[in-house]
Structures are given as structure tokens and as C-alpha cells.
Amino acid sequence: MHQNIIIGSIGTYTPANQINNSFYINHFNSIGVDVSGLLKHLSSETRYIADHNTENVITMAYEAAVKALKSANLDPTEIDLLIFCTDTPEQLTPTNALLLHDKLHTTNANQIFDMNSNCISMLSGLDVASRILSSNSRINKALVVGSFMGSLIASEYDPVCYSTFGDAAVAVILYKTEESYKRGFIDANFKTNTIIKDFYRFPSCGFSQIYNPNIDIEDKKLKSNSFDMSMICKDWIELMSSLCTKYDVDKHSIKQFFLSQFSKPEIEKTLEMMGVELNKYTFIGNKYGYTGLTGPLLAYNEALVNKSIHIGDYIMFCSMGAGYNLCAILYKL
Amino acid sequence: MHQNIIIGSIGTYTPANQINNSFYINHFNSIGVDVSGLLKHLSSETRYIADHNTENVITMAYEAAVKALKSANLDPTEIDLLIFCTDTPEQLTPTNALLLHDKLHTTNANQIFDMNSNCISMLSGLDVASRILSSNSRINKALVVGSFMGSLIASEYDPVCYSTFGDAAVAVILYKTEESYKRGFIDANFKTNTIIKDFYRFPSCGFSQIYNPNIDIEDKKLKSNSFDMSMICKDWIELMSSLCTKYDVDKHSIKQFFLSQFSKPEIEKTLEMMGVELNKYTFIGNKYGYTGLTGPLLAYNEALVNKSIHIGDYIMFCSMGAGYNLCAILYKL
């Protein structure tokens, strides 16, 4: 018998307010910047932006979690572990996990915490939850939520972030099961390299200066610089290939790849360099914008809805967090 | 043979600037509040406050981590996993973990992330690291750091937080070992109950309102209210007793208890209610103030320095995070 950690259900949430490219093209035109080429290159079309007066990462995560619980036909009291993944928290005290726990009434989720590894937070959270499930006999069902409100931290003078970020939340329920064959979470592979640690900074002044009245509000937001993505494609391939080799899974037998949803060309470039067919990825960045840590899971959900993946299929998640750190996860449905 | 997860070494850091009770008593006298009784009740004497222009949670964690590595005679490249625990982060992007990784040159620590469960963050981080070590064959040595800069977020009008908080960092190196007997991390026990979720809030306005110019700076800091600690003492006893029962460890054979360092009377009340001798705890809150998540580990370090614990002894960590959530860890040296 195998002890498997499987995704029991998934729920997603995007705010009601859909915004088209034209809004950002006009906004940046008014300050003399043309973002039309960038948006075309990234295949952006629409994104959804939260109402900052009524929504935050916790309310968004709640909507996603309610759907995931309903889809799994689970009562909130059946959850043992709750991990809240975000790099745009609403609170630091108490944790977003605790406030979500309160809203959801997950009264038996005694182990709860927030996690942040930027845009790989959701993949990291799934890895951590899987390790806890597999090594702690008290934990049988985990709720891992990811919530991103990039619209709150992006400076309206930052062409890349402001014009591409979309807000979204995703919730995944992981089960521990005993089955006669191996499936579910197979393994994760990480890489950290700090060479671009200064390219994305939030808050750019650091929290130790956040109350300094002499610092401009723009310097309290996210500061970003562009960098060459090609080195990342190579690292992604190395992480994914090494998982395939370790578990004797032919790369051609991976049914779908759910990569970072920032740039469609970079996904295609990665799969091309890897020698994988270009019909084996799901891209939702055109519809939802760049939704940070939620992207690979939103893509996975889309593939489930589209029925492009089925029980028994191998799939691969792979993404990148600021600084940078990378994570690839091999999973069997 | 047993696979054990043991604390290989510990390093601590407190800033140079020591502040006595008299400073806080005078400060609050000037606004018509008397904190002398509170400080006497909590057994406070001194605390150390960081220089907000030259120090932050990352620089403090770095100092503690360098000591832990040196004490373990380890090269930074031997670390496989780096977890940065804090509820007063300096950055959200990139993570504090990534910036510490860069400063320390822990070039092989590919899996890194930030974690927050408020004042139990360091105990939660040790639990998570232990689960990863025990279930991931690639991970053999983990660095878990905790860093708290409460002085940054406390309002100078808040008698409890402003007068009791002290800044500090702690770093723990965990090893995976194969030994003929069971020791090290035995198990952790958690409890979450959200009945006081509104009693501590940071930022009190929520980050979704942090850039709102109409909100006063005081409402962007920590807001706190007092509550009855007696229910917490009962919960702590339940968590610790259930670990003792599960692993057949007599409570009298626990050599030392390292509890929340907020209040000496509450520690004594807990041990008294539990029926444990009052010479079995270490309190460092008098010297360091309330240093949040670092407290139980600073106390553990003090007990090592004082030689009040030895190889083969059982010890118990137990603390409380805002909202509230609790964690107890049973450990055998």
C-alpha cells in the first residue's frame, strides 16, 4: 500500500471588476509610456482587480476556500491544517490564516500559519502541506490557500507590474489516502539563486522605514526592474528534468505543464528547449493577468474544467518567485 | 535505528541598546499612565531595542545565524533548508529568507521561505522543518531563524506593548541523524481558537488601507487590548499533558519548561496548576523584555549556558500567538 497525498478539490476566486488592456495603454500613454507592445508580447487581454475598500486577500481566499470545501463535499471542521500563502498579506497580526480560520469555522484546524515565498508560495505551500501530511499522523486533510492582491502594491508608474497584475485567490484541499498504487504528490524540486535580489522590492524602502514621513509613498510600494528570463527557462528545465529522471517519468508522458503565468512566450520557449510538444501547457494569463502565486493553480483548474487532464495523468507545476527562487512539482492524478 | 531530528546548535542576538524600566515609566508618566505596576507584575527589568536606521529583522537574524553556524562548526553551504520566522518582516518581496540566504551565502539552501504564526512562529517553524527533514531525503540540515522587531510596530501610546517589547533574533540548526535510541524532536501539539482575534491587530487598519492618507499613522501600527490569560494557562496544560501521555513521559521527568516569556507569574501559575515544581522553568523576560517568537528559544539557550539541562533530558516548549494559537513541543536532548 502507498500513502498518497492527493488534491481532493480546488476552488478559485477572481474579483468582479474586469479591466481590459485599453485602460492600461491609455493610462501609460498619458505619462508618455507605451505598454501596448509589452501586453501583446505577454498575450495579456483582461485581468480582474479587487475593490480595495471591500476586498482583501482574506475575503478573496475565503471565497475560493468555500468553493473548494463545497466541491469536496467537506465540512470546514474536517480540515486539520490551514496554510495561507501570500506575499500581499492583509494582516501580520493575527495571521491571515487565523482570520480565514475564523471566517470559515475550520474549528479543528489547530495547526495554521502564513507562508511566503513570493510567486512560488502556493507550490511551496503544497510541498510543506504534503510533508506535514505524510509525517504527522494527526493531520489528514489540509487546506492550502493562496491569495494575491498585486493591485494594492503596484505603483501606477510601474509599466510592467501595474499593467499586468491581476488579483486572484485559489484554495486546494489535500487528502492523505492509502491506495494500492502511487499517485498524487510525487516530489518537489527547488532552486534559489539571489543574483536578482534587488530587481523586485516590496516595500522598496523596507518596513523599518514605512512610517518615515520623509519617504515618498511611491518608495513604500513595489519597485521592479526587468531582467533576462532566459536563464530562468534553463533552470526550470533542469528542475523538471531532474524530477522526471528521479522518478523514471518520460517528459513526453507529462500530460500538461502548469508554469508561471506571466509570459506565454516564455512558457513556449521553455517547452521548446525541453523538447516537449507545444500543446501541453495551459495559459490563463491572457484572461486573468499575472496573478502571482495563484497562476499555476488557476491554470490547473482551467485544465480540469476543459477536461484536458484525467485520472492517471502525470502533470508538472513549475514557477518562479522574486529574487529568485524556483519550484517544480511532479504530480500524478 | 531511529531517524532523529536534533537541534545541532543555537545562536542568539540582541541589539546593543539596553533600556531600563525607568525610561518607560517616565515616558508613560508624561502622558498620565502608570506602567510601574505592570512592569513589576511581569518581572520586567531591561530590554534591548534595535537602531531602526541600521538594523532590521534580517540583519538581526544574520547575527544569530552566523553564531549558530560557528557553534555547529558548519559551513553555510551545508544548509539545505532555510525558514525565516517573523511577524515583523523587513520585506515581503523578496522574502526575508532570500535576503538572509544572500547575506549568509547558504548557496545550497534551495528550499527557503518565510513563515508567520506570530509568537509561536519559531515553534511552528521548528515543527515544519522537522516534518520536512523527516520526509524529504534531499534535506539533511535546516536553518530556522526567528527575528522580532516589536519596537518598530508598537505605538508609543500603547502601555503594554511599548513598555514590554524587546527586539531579538534566534537561529537554530536542525540535523537529521540515525541513532540507536529516540531523541530530539518528539512531537508538537497545536491549538487554535479565534475568540480574541480582534485583541491584537497589526497593521490595525489592514494593509489594504496602509497607503490611505486619511488614516492616522497610529492606526497603521499595532493595536492591542488586554485579555484574561487564565484560559491560556489551561490550554497550555492540556497541550503539554497530552504530549506527555501520548509519549509516556512523566511530567515530573521534564527537566525544564520554556514557555512564553511575556509574564513570569503566568509561567508559575501554569506549572503550579500542572503540579510541576517551580524550579523547572527558565525566565529571561526580565533581561530581554517580551521578544515575541524568539522568547522560548532564548530561554532554552539560557538553560544551555547555565547548564541546567543535559543530554538525555526531556524539555518542553510552549507558547502563544495572537488571536490565539498555541504550540507545545516535546523534545529530548
UniProtKB/TrEMBL annotation, chains A, B:
Beta-ketoacyl-[acyl-carrier-protein] synthase III C-terminal domain segment(s): 246-332
InterPro entries for the chain: ACP_syn_III_C (IPR013747), ACP_syn_III_N (IPR013751), Thiolase-like (IPR016039)
GO molecular function: 3-oxoacyl-[acyl-carrier-protein] synthase activity
Pfam families referenced in this protein's UniProt entry, alphabetically: ACP_syn_III, ACP_syn_III_C
Chain segments annotated as coiled-coil in the UniProt record: none
BP GO annotations: fatty acid biosynthetic process; secondary metabolite biosynthetic process
UniProt-recorded name of the protein: Ketoacyl-ACP synthase III
Organism, scientific name: Ruminiclostridium herbifermentans
Lineage start: Bacteria, Bacillati, Bacillota, Clostridia, Eubacteriales
